[in-house]
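Dear colleagues,

I hope this message finds you well. In preparation for our joint manuscript, I am sending the UDP-N-acetylmuramate--alanine ligase (Methanobrevibacter gottschalkii DSM 11977) sequence together with its predicted structure, so that both groups work from identical material. I would be grateful if you could confirm receipt.
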Amino acid sequence: MNKNKTFGVIGVCGANGNLIARILKQRGYNVIGTDLSFKKDCRFAKALEGYDIEVFYGNAPEAFFKKADYIIPPASLSKDSSLFKQMGDKPIFELYDVIEMIQSEKPVFGITGTNGKTTTTTLLKKIAYDNGIKPCEHDLEGMQGNAEFIPILQSRLDGDVGIIEVGTFGVPGTIGRIVKNTGMSGGLITNITPDHLNDLGSFMDYAKVKAEFISELGLGQLIVNGQDPTIMGLLRELDFKGEVITFGVDELPDSIGMKECVCGNEIAVKEIISGCGYYFCKCGLTTPQADYIATNIDLKNRTFDLHTPTEKLTVKMGVDGLHNVYNLTGVIIAAHKFLDLPYDKILPTIASFTGVSGRMEEVAKVKGKDIFVDYAHNPAGVETVLKEFKKLFGDFTTVITVSSESGYVGDIDIFNSALKFSKFIVPASVASQKIAIEKLKSKPELNDRIFLNHIDNFEKTGTLGASEDEVRDGLRKALNLDCEMVIAIGEAATKFKNAVFDL
Ligand SMILES: [Zn+2]
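The corresponding structure tokens are as follows:
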């Protein structure tokens, strides 16, 4: 393609158009853009700053179409729209043409799993930055970057490496397309536990969607939690031919959880954290001897030993909880293998990393009580966080702001975890209030542990599970209970955490 030609990108205030404009500009093409929004309403205008891309905001003028040699319309643009007619017979270049013409040309590493993805991705990137390695960033403010084309386009932006979180998608094919179109050569799977079952039939159907990550990696390098029977089962089932590196944690199991094996049998997992631990199935699937194993875990002093295949490291952690020992171990291996860094360049960042905001985050101290929020919003995530919270702090009150994506079954699981680990429960989401009322009917003795804040009209507002008012009211209720520690769980709790300052 001739570098003197000008690409006219329509929709530069949308994520895809914005990324495409910057990718083409970085690769040396002339780029102009347009969008129906005005600059003040353009969500990603800031990302275009410093790029020397002329943008026509509002209605695309004749000048835009005159200057552009090729038009890149948004995928959503209707062929009947007036904008489409304005293009006349200019050659059209589409999203997939960009993906085909411009390759990522850098090593790309993907992180997936049900829990711990964001912590893992954030920390691995931090280690890269601390060592002068620049990961490509999408720079789309406020976007999680999980939507299918964002990681694919992001990997084509300038940077030394790509470190990309691959989200939990229900739709078959999506994960496979991301792995393929980013040219991913390595990856990490944190765990696979039941969640997001709304679009899919069974847990195994869900697991098989995640399995695309494995099958599309081909001969790549895969770092996995070996204590997760689902991951290890899928690796066997798919006959993965790349390099597998396993990690695990040497701790005594403290519960038994049932999980479906890839062979179809139910297996009892002696759990260290939810869904992961020691397992044996009649089909032969069993916990492997991990390549990297964390031992001597001291959560109070935040230290553990990590046995690598060649040496023993002493790891200092800046975060709490056994689930984070898994997360950090995975990150240390990824930084060593993928970023090719020696351990002494990795461990200082591990020690100074105090976590992603919204993950076991202490928000405030109000009336002498410590208030934490955690983003946990699926049954396994909630169980893990509350269990670790119990170990660390003893008695606490849980404010539930979740409405589970797995529906009623997930909501029950979440409520039961709260009952199991916390002293008091304040149901703040509509879903948890419904369950609370059922529980109180069948077990009136729970009256001194479950505190219904208010009973609303059971209309779910928005997609977050609870409104800002419900979060605030829930926290207020929790502060009036006789317990020093409060943890509010769910996306709503983290989003509206500042409501605590109204109290
Ligand atoms: Zn089996």
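For the figure legend, we might mention the following. DSSP finds 16 helices and 20 strands in the chain. Confidence is low (pLDDT under 50) at residues 196-200.

With kind regards,
E.M.
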